[in-house]
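Record type: ASSEMBLY
Status: queued
Input:
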Amino acid sequence: MKNIIIGSSAAGISAAEALRRADPTCEIVMISDEPNPLYSRPLISYYLAGELPEERIYYRPPDFYERNRIEARLGRRAVRVEPRANRVILDNGEELEYDNLLLATGAVPVFPEIEGLEKRGVFGFRTLKDAKEMLRLLPEVKEAVVLGGGLVGLKAAVGLRARGVEVTVAVGSPHLLSQMIDARASEIYGELLEAHGIKVATGMEPAKILGDSQVTGVLMRSGEELPCQLVVVGKGVRANLEPVEGTEVRYDYGIIIDEHCRTNIPNIYAAGDVAQSYDVVRGEHWTNALWPCAVEQGRVAGLNMAAKEAVYRGSIGMNSVQLFDLPVISAGLAGLRERDFDEELIVQPAPRVYKRLVLRGDRVVGFILVGEIENAGLIRSLVAKGVSVAGLKDQLLRESFGFSEVLPLIEGRSERFPEREYQELIETMRLVS
Amino acid sequence: MERIFCDLRRCLACGACELACAVEHSSSKDLFRAVLEGEAPVGRREVQAAPFGSVSLNISLACHHCDPAPCVDACITGAMHHEDGVVLVDQERCVGCWMCVMACPFGAITPSKLKVALKCDLCPDREGKAGRARYACVEACPTEALFAGEFVEFKRLLEEEVVPY
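Status: finished
Output:
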């Protein structure tokens, strides 16, 4: 069997490892447009900040391909897939045939439609190359403007600030991190960034990048000019659909996958940021471009490619980040614009501790934990499992809340909790009673 | 694969396992020295009250060493990894992003102030020790509620009647 994997980040690596473990003899080819793709994308902000040297951001050792007997085609872009011919066309015209194909092409930054994006000093913040070029330019940079107040933009802002740059974050919406948290939590982070010398300007959309060949500033729609020598565009990402555009492979915002991480074409799979999977909270297919989803989808795809049945139970939106000394974890319907819930519970026991639980009926459909994050995984699992928490909802946000209180929800429910670890607990409780 | 299980009928919530775990993971492995040296040892095990029908029992909880493990999937650095069935954190590689804390359904990972994730590592420094002394928490448990072994063996223990103390 010949397997081709396009993409060599979280989903691609995870798929290749699962595939190789399940099938020691099959052929695996991995294609990546990056020359050195085995690094961890979320770590480029740590590299930019100077917290990690380059060798520490690698997710797998350099002998990964050899050790897993993978033929690596690095620095090559897959430009088109021909599902009927079972063929992938590379940017040099080369044609590769496959029995099974995995599309793990990831996502690419979205750039706003404004003038001046081609100037030296304008960056997306997605690849190691972006981070390296930003560092190379740094001696000429006194001020930087980050367009967008999402996670990527803020991590870039924190990284640049750590290098002594004067940073302004210009956010189009009235709030920072509006996809991840609500207005009150966002205020806490606004104050935190300001306290660390990062300016936050909300309600600010860019009109034009200023300068000749080199960036000298950003003209905002308000007419205000923000002088800077570096611009980071953090306006979100979109699925990299290039190789499947116009083909029979079905896609919406991302490539639609089923519970086996398979597309509508039986021998083509997709995983990671390019895939649109069933979101168990929203009840529809959704692109949750997140590291943990990419790794799990990659593994499920890899196993199925090796003809070992594996099931993907669906995703939920979630994220975790620590900016300066303040951590936040949120999941489900936690963002500013989410309205599809019946009830919210909020506690703020200290100025920098904020917890919000969002319920639909007697099920938790989202939460935000700022400052005290210990129970995030436990609450997240209740969101993902979709179980009723009727008798427990007032306890979930307490600091003392713990897993043992969830035991009655699990007891006797083998079907909803099929994982080995839950099964052992269910069996233990059955024998003890 | 040998793991640690808690017999809820025997656990008295004395907290000996929590303390023994914290001491085992301190640099001196001695409670008084650790405290005198200004180190506050952090345990990776927690005893909780478990509602059980009309009564409340106790359960000593720590990492289940899941396979596949959500924390390993979520780790962006590769610090959280499987090694012969044990889920371990390479503290040198952990950057404190807390993706593992977000992922763990059991709340078994502690985000420490030093920006590294702490969890049960099945006492690597006790490798070679035999019987109950192999794990600090198991050794410390005065009622033998904590059991180290395969789950099938633990099930056999649960089928035995408990002799009241």
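Annotation: Helices of chain B lie at 16-24, 31-36, 70-74, 99-103, 136-140, 151-159.
Annotation: The beta strands of chain B are 3-6, 46-52, 55-61, 80-83, 86-89, 110-111, 117-118, 146-149.
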